[in-house]
Design a protein that fits this description.
With 448 residues, this protein is α+β, with helices and mostly antiparallel strands. It is built from 10 helices and 12 strands. A 5-stranded antiparallel sheet has the order 2-1-5-4-3, sandwiched between helices. The protein has a 5-stranded mixed sheet with strand order 7-9-10-12-11. β9 and β10 form a beta hairpin. α2 packs parallel to α3, α6 runs antiparallel to α7 and α9 runs antiparallel to α10. The longest helix has 47 residues. Keywords: ATP-binding, Kinase, Membrane, Nucleotide-binding, Transferase, Transmembrane, Transmembrane helix, Two-component regulatory system. InterPro entries: HATPase_C_sf, HATPase_dom, His_kinase_dom, PAS-like_dom_sf, Sig_transdc_His_kin-like_C.
């Protein structure tokens, strides 16, 4: 509305100036000098008036934008004036100002809301620039690091030098675990970073989480599962030994008391012999079980070398070629160009062969069985090896138990293969995970 009024007012002034100019020119041509002088004065006054009018409007608009730039919300233009065009302009500028102030208030409220969430978050949050200056440190971060103020990464040296080195050298998408001891307790932290660009500044958003309680709970759960399996296996082995021992002792005592001077008959001797053989076998089984447990605890540190993934996969096929069902399975290999890992060849082969054997046993006599060996490099630079099969899969309720030592669903399995494989991957600083869709696909993923 205001722009329309200004438009017509400017048009009116321009037309009036044009008409005066024509009259001024006509008077000069007709030698009416007295009229020409009057019209010239009027023309000059009109031009000056137009310039003044435009300057007045431009000054008001310039003042308005200057006030906005200086974050001045008090600016207000009077609307009770006689000049309708200026009144309409003032009204529009006031509306724009009120709209801007409303948006500003809303943004400030959102900023306070997000700032409150950031400050009260249970996870420690730091924003750090490339020079190590800390722009933001919420309460949780200060509490975890036992600092009231955090302005630079160098301050972390006073807490723990290794912690300083870890955060100062932290790379995006490369999570780390760290443990240090303060004056009161041992603190275990999970630290990860994400790149962030704010106001054209490259920052690193560092998330720090105290995982003491989670680790303690996982440790308790793991020990409970381990004790449950150990108790089950040991009791299954000892129970027959105990029962047979008691039976044999009763038999011997009975014959000793009733027939003290005569030899036991052949049937009794035969039963005693069978019982002793069972005790012997179960004793050997118990020794084998204990030796299996010792195997888990005595894995040597990896002797790492640069290994070609393609060569590893070729060796796996050769090592598993004599396994039952190998000839019925189709092997498919997918490897990124010239993919290599830095690992202990014997240990990695042990893991991969175990996974392939499990896949072969899972597929069984299925003539359409497929095993995929996949090697790729992730977006974060980590090497990922996968063993996938189209067997019957793993029930969802067993996925959390398959890595527990001695847990097995096989009649002849020892239950240490997967737990041993996971331990080897941990020694390599990597991980072993599983995902399974029953009757479709099971995938074991090794991350280096």
């Amino acid at each position: 509305m205001s722009s329309k009024a200004l438009y017509f007012k400017i048009i009116f002034r321009v037309v009036f100036i044009l008409a005066t100019s024509i009259g001024f020119a006509f008077s000069i041509l007709q030698n009416h000098l007295d009229y020409a002088i009057y019209l010239g004065i009027i023309l000059i006054a009109q031009v000056i008036g137009l310039i003044a009018f435009l300057n007045q409007t431009n000054k008001k608009i310039a003042f308005f934008f200057e006030a906005i730039e200086n974050d001045d919300s008090t600016v207000h233009y009077p609307i009770h004036i006689k000049n309708k065009s200026l009144k309409a302009l003032h009204d529009s500028l006031n509306k724009v100002n009120n709209l801007i102030q409303g948006i500003k208030i809303e943004h400030e409220a959102q900023e306070r809301y997000y700032q409150t969430i950031l400050e009260e978050a249970a996870i420690g949050i730091l924003t750090i620039n490339k020079h190590g200056h800390i722009y933001t440190a919420n309460k949780s971060a200060k509490a975890m690091l036992s600092r009231n103020q955090l302005t630079h990464v160098r301050q972390l040296q006073q807490i723990n030098k290794k912690l300083h080195d870890l955060i100062a050298g932290l790379k995006p998408f490369d999570p780390k675990l760290f443990q240090f001891t303060n004056e009161r307790e041992i603190i275990k932290l999970s630290v990860k970073a994400t790149p962030l660009v704010l106001n054209k500044k490259e920052l690193l958003l560092v998330l720090i989480q105290n995982i003491n309680s989670e680790i303690e709970q996982n440790e308790v759960d793991s020990w409970n599962k381990l004790f449950s399996v150990l108790t089950h296996e040991i009791m299954n082995t000892i129970a027959p030994i105990t029962s047979l021992s008691e039976t044999l002792v009763d038999t011997i005592n009975k014959h000793s008391s009733t027939n003290n001077e005569q030899l036991m008959d052949a049937s009794v001797s035969k039963n005693i012999s069978k019982g002793l053989n069972v005790i012997k076998q179960n004793s050997h089984n118990l020794v084998d079980f204990v030796n299996s447990y010792r195997t888990l605890t005595k894995i040597p540190s990896p002797d790492k070398n640069i290994l070609s993934v393609e060569s590893l996969f070729d060796k796996i096929k050769i090592l598993c070629s004599q396994e039952k069902g190998f000839s019925n399975v189709t092997f498919k290999t997918n490897i990124s160009n010239d993919l290599e890992i830095f690992a202990d060849e014997k240990q990695v082969l042990q893991v991969l062969v175990n996974l392939v054997k499990n896949a072969l046993q899972s597929i069984g006599d299925n003539t359409n069985g497929v095993i995929k060996l996949i090697g790729t490099k992730g977006y974060n630079g980590k090497i990922v090896l996968q063993v996938a099969d189209n067997g019957p899969g793993i029930p969802s309720d067993l996925l959390s138990d398959i890595f527990v030592p001695f847990f097995t669903t096989k009649k002849e399995g020892t239950g240490i293969g997967l737990s041993l494989s996971k331990h080897i991957m941990r020694l390599h600083g990597g991980s072993l995970r599983v995902s399974s869709v029953p009757e479709k696909e099971t995938v074991f993923t090794l991350s280096f």
